[in-house]
Amino acid sequence: MKLKKGIPLIDQGNSLGFWGGKFGGNFVPETLKKPIEDLEILFNKLKKDKKFIAERDKYFKNWVGTPTRFIKLENLTKHVGGAQIWSKVVSDANGGAHKIYNATVHCLLAKRSGKKIICGDTGAGYAGKMLSMAAKKFGLKCKIFMGAKDIKRQQPNVKAMKKNGAEVIPVYSGSQTLVDAVSECMRFWVANCDTTAMCVGSTVGPAVFVRICGWSTSQISRELKAQLIEEFGSIPKKLKLYNCVGGGSSSFGFWNEFMDYDKKQCEFIGVEAGGPAKSRRHAAPLTYGSKIGILHGAAQYVNQNADGQIEETESISAGLDYPGISPLHCFLKDTKRARYTAASDEEALKAYKLVTKYEKLRPSLEPSHAFSVAIKEAKKMSKNTIVVVNSCGDAYKDKKILRNRLGKKYA
Amino acid sequence: MLNPIDVAFKKAKNENRPALLTYTVAGDSTKNQSLIILNTISKYADILELGVPHNTPVADGSQIQTSAYRAIKNGIKIEDIFWIVKKYKKNKNSKPIILMGYYNMIFQYGEKKFLEKCKKVGVNGLIVVDLPWPENKSFIKKCQKKTIYFIQLLSPTTSKQRLNKIIKDSHAMNYFISMLSTTGGKLKVSSKKIMSNYFKIKKINPKKNVVIGFGITEKSIKSLKKADGLVVGSAICKEISSSIQKRQNPVTNVANLVKKLKYKIL
What we know:
The structure holds 2 protein chains of 2 kinds. By secondary structure, chain A is of the alpha/beta class. Chain A contains 15 helices and 14 strands. Chain A has helices at residues 30-46, 50-65, 74-80, 99-113, 126-137, 148-153, 155-163, 178-192, 207-217, 219-232, 249-255, 327-334, 345-358, 365-378, 399-406; strands at 18-19, 23-24, 69-72, 84-89, 117-122, 141-147, 167-171, 196-199, 239-244, 266-275, 292-295, 298-301, 338-344, 386-390. The radius of gyration of chain B is 17 Å and the shape is globular. Chain B has 11 helices and 9 strands. Chain B is an alpha/beta fold. A 9-stranded parallel beta sheet of chain B has the order 5-4-3-2-1-9-8-7-6. In chain B, helix 3 packs across helix 10 and helix 10 runs antiparallel to helix 11. Chain B has helices at 4-14, 31-41, 62-73, 78-89, 103-109, 111-121, 137-145, 160-168, 191-204, 234-245, 250-265; strands at 19-25, 47-51, 97-101, 125-128, 149-150, 152-154, 173-177, 209-213, 229-232. Classes of the chains: A alpha/beta, B alpha/beta. The interface between A and B is large, with 37 and 41 residues.
């Protein structure tokens, strides 16, 4: 299994949509074959269309707000005492997280295909919130599927979705989290694919959804590359890019433009959700060696039992609370281009406390996982190492959890 | 030797009626009870589909989901499902069995080992909801070697060109999904429309049997009786759920329902 240079990773799958011959694919009911094929044809055409790219860039610039900041965390760097710690503040983007890129592109595609309704899944609520914003902006009706447990713990985003006119449909099956929301959303699409477009909220699902999402979030690394060159004159000799990994959309977007660099120069570190310190129900299939299985239309490393039933996960961060992982990350793991590790709930909370103590930055619980590992590892690194953490979401949505776990001061 | 599935269609045709196919979830509500249900409904049904419950079923509506979650909660494992089939096949009035499920269960068991086990216990056909054509090409061949039918699904969204290719690669039975829906949806298109789509498919290769499923109930079954076979699943799962709720015997209630379904198509 090998990465190819000079070809975008999203286009390195084979004719059936498998990366490395075994990750991804299209394990979908027959009814979805046609709408998926239609979407593939449309996307393959438009991603080469200069007019479409100009349109995307116009909305990214004027509406999403690009570029998001790239800042040095001076105080944190001083406190940690090792590598320079920087952050790409993707939570600056309209709506407060990276999910806006994928949502915008999906709505643009839906418009082109003549669909009037768009449905989507959400875990932390960001994918849903952004899709509701974009749907409103582009005049589409919007339906969001969300696990009942997530609806309870991510109320600010639920309110935002409703305010944007989206219908939020609670999902009561299974663990009542993201995995069930994605299943229910796919079921809705099976029954309504003639009138409705579907947006999968991360780099998961049937191959075309992995590709569209990766193509969209790659905006993050395009900006970062330019910002690094502006700051340092060239890409630093020792660059470490830390990102949390749930489905894997922000991390993939954060790394994509650096894919062809040697990993000794640009190292990618993905941080999965380890769950509560003593729990076995982690959401870290790459770190803890889960087996390959099929989930939501794609072959991937996934938490499952011997029979192939998908296992429930547990994490303080709804956005990472997913038993599977993008086929792109499976491929990056097996080709050893990226390194994956996990942080526990407690470690993420500790990192949140530390970052907010020293900096004017409030990373949500998801990027707090990445900060945890970055801080730990930066200590042992030289001063000329540039550590960049993608702060891909804002903690506003987590205020209730933060208040419960850390007290009023942190909410 | 004919696959018993062919024999079942032949028998129905001789009686000038469509074959009646039932779908129940293995282990719903318990391992033993689902076996008793199979034994009891064999008197009326021609072919029995046995669902392999999965906990992230992307094509099943709420009725089958409820049955599947209940079976999993009650501890059903893949080996128990083989046990059910093996025991059932000892019944001298047993009918052909088709296992229906999601690919991950087969993938984890191992394709080869799974098919060997199917052969050993007496499974006659397989429906794998999320293994469409052309992804299923190599698996179809493996099924053929074991003389197990791989039943292809066809949908109203399947293009003409694709229909031709799928049917060419199919075994002697195909499954037409009546409408855009998960299992058990309310029939939102007319029977006339469904039958007109059905005949278009049938024309491609009249020798191959085509069954219609999704959304078929006691009310609608009669209007579709020109088909080679009709599948009722969610309505049966619903009957099991409501029997449990009303503290009645699911076996008797399901048997009564299947009996009624049969009379509608005579």
